[in-house]
Amino acid sequence: MNTRTYPEGVLILDTHHMGRPHVVATYVLLGDEPALVDPGPAGTLPNVEAALAQHDMSLADIRHIVVTHIHLDHAGASGLILERNPNIRIHVHERGAPHLIDPSRLIKSAGQLWGDQLETLWGRTVPAPAAAIETLVGGERLRLGGRMLCAYDAPGHARHHLVWYDEQSGAAFVGDNTGVRLPLERFTRPATPPPEVDIEAWLSTLDMIAALNPQWIMLTHFGAYNDVTFHLADVRERLLRWAELVRQGMASGASEAAQIAALEAQAHKESAHLSAEDQAALTQQSGEVELSWRGLARYWAKRA
């Protein structure tokens, strides 16, 4: 299990999703009220517990779960964690909270993307108790003992997305709003699956993150990066490129299969420098390129 401390007081745990490193991370905010940021999918919870044990911690020590958004790869383990430690408080966007309390619609939506691989990929998602959940809309300050987190409404990847800024470490926990990235690579990839992609909102969210002037960008997929200016510029450029390629493909009248193939060719061109293993990890981080095409196509169809 790979673990490493990045910003002071923050621990990164590699959940080894589907047995592969550098796909899904969860973060531990250390201190007198320890918190998990994006605890990950239900299926990787045993790996999170094992990683905590390496640091003489367990779920019994955790006091808070801080959620960027409620997609299964980020927050699917929340209900199971509360079964093990009912004293934990969950902090989540008010639009996402109902889907933690009753995940049936979330699971159904994910099933449309993942089919019969859903539980294999993400594990068994169970409800989180409503009494444990604190909802936010952005603009709030959350005190975790001696640590202060600031919540910011951050649509783009999803309407229920928050960015969390940790004043102590200068780290911004951005979920999927700044794309995905492999450690040691100066290269990002957008993750734009349906149903809530909104490019205008996304660009505003990137502006908001830049205005925070964070010292670190903390990605669930995957890791902590302090080349913040480069990272934000790279993901903005690639997001706009992918969106425009999909728009042009739809306007051309080409078949859906041809449009998907064009975006896949662009993605392959951009990542051609990566090894086969890193290519596989990148795809696992962001989902198949077809899913990103479908999210962008849905966005442009709604605009039309």
| Helix fraction bin | 40-55%
Unreliable runs: none
Element-by-element helix/strand order: EEEEHEHHEHHHEEEEEHEEHHHH
**Mean pLDDT metric:** 93
Which word captures the global form?
A: globular
Please tally the β strands and state the result.
13
The CATH topology is given as Metallo-beta-lactamase, Chain A
Quaternary structure of the protein: single chain
Return the CATH architecture.
4-Layer Sandwich
Structural class: alpha/beta
Quick one: CATH superfamily? Ribonuclease Z/Hydroxyacylglutathione hydrolase-like
Please count the helical segments. 11
Largest sheet: 7 strands, mixed
Strand order, main sheet: write it out.
Answer: 1-2-3-4-5-6-7
Radius of gyration: 18 Å
Keywords: Hydrolase
GO molecular function, one term: hydrolase activity
Protein name: MBL fold metallo-hydrolase
Domain Metallo-beta-lactamase: 23-221
